[in-house]
Amino acid sequence: MSKISSTVTIGLVANPFSARDIRRVISNATGLQVSDRANIVMRVLSAISACGVKRVLMMPENGGIRSFLKRDLQRDQQMGDNSFAELEMTNTSINGTVEDTFAATKAMVDSGVKTIVVLGGDGTHRAVAKVCGQVPIAGISTGTNNAFPEHREPTITGLAVGLAATGRIPESVAFTFNKLLCVKINDGERSDIALVDVVVSTERYIGARALWRTNNLREIFVTFADPEVIGMSAIAGLLEPVSRNDSGGLHVLLDVPEQAKTALQVPIAPGLISTVGVQSWQQLEPGIPFTLRQSSGIIALDGERELEFGPEDTVQVTLYEKAFRTVNVGACMRHTGQHRLLVGAPLKC
Amino acid sequence: MSDNPFPLSRDELLNIYQTMRTIREFEERVHIEFSRGDIPGFVHLYAGEEASATGIMTHLREEDRIASTHRGHGHCIAKGVDVKGMMAEIFGKKSGVCGGKGGSMHIADLDKGMMGANGILGAGAPLACGAALAAKFRDKGDIAISFVGDGASNQGTFLESLNLASIWNLPVVFVVENNGYAEATSVDWAVACDSYVDRASGFGMPGVTVDGTDFFAVYEAAGEIIRRAREGGGPSLLECKMIRFFGHFEGDMQTYRAEGEVDDIRAKRDCLKSFSKTVTAAGVLSQEDLEACDTDVLSLIEEAVSSAIAAELPIDADLFTDVYVNY
Q: Which terminus of chain A has a smaller tally of CB atoms within 10 A, N or C?
């Protein structure tokens, strides 16, 4: 086990804008309030502070989380509680777009954070994963479909992050590798990644971003196919489960249900079970580029429409393994229990 | 049209472009005419925000009612109010849609379902609730829209209207056009809970945020929300995050904006440019289609200004007409 470190900094990205899209209207999806997001951050801060972490570097935003936190921390200090880690904002600009996440994550990586805690949906995690390199991510679900971040009480995630980052849990236990999908248009003229799924639709506009009309879907690629999640990857999960740790992914060809070989009932969004037409599916081997069957349309990454393409474009999708790391919260807490890491007096570094 | 990858026909897309282009040219021209001193009163321009009004109004029919704001020209044009009559109204001429007695902030055309621009911030929301209550009793599936800016969304009238709409399950949609500034005050400083969607859930209705500079984003979200209201699903809130190309009012020095901010948004977040790019890339409309439309619009605006300038002013006796009207 590595030496317990007293100079650990944890990064924190909390998206104030996730879970605001049209799925609130079409499917009764949850809209997590800004004050609830701030409360989650407070719970994470409590837990990682209890592990002896002294400093947290956070993405600044003007969506309200920062101002709630400032007020909450001031109130705690006034009541004599100074146990929280120092909360510092990255010196990055605030535009209210995904660019904020890219810039803040880069600043965190450059300053040597041990782990980045992410509050958001699949889209937020994707944005952090694009920039974080080998710095592990600890995901907390505050989005809509959330196939990527596991559903768990943030206090436990905070404890796992704190114990792992301070060196109390060996890296081989604490961190795990993840797969991702890379989309390249015209040999990289345009490119992007997805952590869970790449979906091809016949539409040619980004619109309200979220996907929910299944008649337009033609192809889906997934890194893992979990039948317990909702969203696009559930299509694959209900055909042939593939775990996050299995090698390879799945590629499913789709069509309108009336013309497809198989009709599948899929929880496509919270509370929305839709019929999806399935033609066929096959294993997706890592490292081998697949060229899209569809000649034009839009590509959705982790459930959000992102990239338009036309007949003049060549689009390839490749699955990569061991692409980035996450904190394995379950393994961390099992290790903590087995080794009685939390027995005794409060932890100090 | 089987190859059309949009939920709208070619003709519908062309009409949408024409509406957005008409709003843009109307506002750019009012900006010029106001600087010449020929327009009385204040004007607040909607340029840069066209995708919001057009994306929403594309789903409306004449019987649906809208309550607008002080920045109402775009709402009027998208709801079908006569452009020449609007220009004459802004010039304060007798041929205006309100006889030249309303001006920019009080343009109304009840025959088109346009209940009026409104100089009182937040005053449109209760009007929309009233129209929605009437629509509910008539039971023909009509709805009402209340437009409000980010600043006026802090008004008591707006918050009371959210409550009323929710408890009466009214067919009303509250559209918060968040352009980032309440006059000169940044929304980041002025809105307590920092999220309009959170406000909606506080009143028991769904709320959705969309990129208000993307026509298709507004169109899709508004379509679902309006369908819900028509079918008895009750009120919803739609926040359109958008930008304005001009100041709060004409003459605003805009010292609260960052250097180069307006040039940057005109270059990168122009809803007309993004709409044009999307529909031409898909091959549904050609550049020639759009340019022909531009020519028609410029001609219309030129005629509107010429006829407004040439029109007569109201006379003293007009003060005593239109004081009370039957709805």
A: N
State which residues form the domain around A254.
179-322
How many domains are contained in chain A? 2
Give contacts of B209 with chain A, Cβ < 8 Å. 17, 20-21
Residues of chain A with pLDDT under 70: 1-3, 6, 349
Does B116 contact chain A (CB < 8 Å)?
no
Mutation pick from B56, B58, B188, B195 vs chain A, by most beta carbons of A within 10 Å, is B195
Is A348 among the domain residues?
no
Supply the pLDDT for residue A77. 84
- The CA distance from A55 to A48, in Å, is 9
For the domain that residue A185 is a member of, what is the CATH number?
Answer: 2.60.200
pTM for this structure?
0.91
Average pLDDT of the segment spanning B96-104: 95
Asked if the structure places residue A2 within a domain, the reply is no
Q: Is residue A238 part of a domain?
A: yes
Neighboring chain A residues of B228 at a CB cutoff of 8 Å: 25
Neighbouring CB atoms inside 10 A of A60's CB total: 16
A139 and A201 part of one domain:
no
Distance CA A218, CA A24 (A): 25
Residue boundaries of the structural domains of chain B: 10-320
- Asked whether residue A95 falls in the same domain as residue A124, the answer is yes
What contacts A232, CB < 8 A, 6 or more positions away?
A145, A196, A197, A199, A211, A217, A220, A222, A268, A300, A303
Query: Which residue among B195, B228, B241 sits closest to A64, beta carbon to beta carbon?
Result: B195
Residue A140 shares a structural domain with residue A188: no
- CATH for A92: 3.40.1280
| Amino acid symbol at B148 | V
Q: What is the pLDDT of residues B163-204, one digit of tens each?
A: 999 999 999 999 999 988 888 888 877 777 667 888 898 999
- Residue B40 exposure: Cα atoms within 13 Å on the Cβ side: 13
Same-domain pairing of A141 and A250: no
Interchain pair A21, B209: CB under 8 A = yes
- A202 → closest Cβ in B5, B195, B208: B5
Q: Does B3 score more than 80 pLDDT?
A: no
**Is the CATH code 3.40.50.1000 the one for domain B10-320?**
no
In sequence order, the 6+-apart residues with CB closer than 8 A to the CB of A59 are A12, A13, A14, A89, A90, A92, A100, A101, A104, A105, A108
Give the separation between CA A260 and CA A278, rounded to whole angstroms: 6
Q: Based on the fold, state whether residues A162 and A185 are members of the same structural domain.
A: no
- Report yes or no on A345 lying in a domain: no
- Which residues lie across from A267 on neighbouring strands? A273
Distance from CA of A259 to the nearest CA of B (A): 16
Tell me the chain B residues in contact with residue A17 when contact means C-beta distances shorter than 8 Å.
209
- The continuous run of DSSP H or E covering A180 comes out as strand A175-185
From chain B, pick out residues whose CB is under 8 angstroms from the CB of A269: none
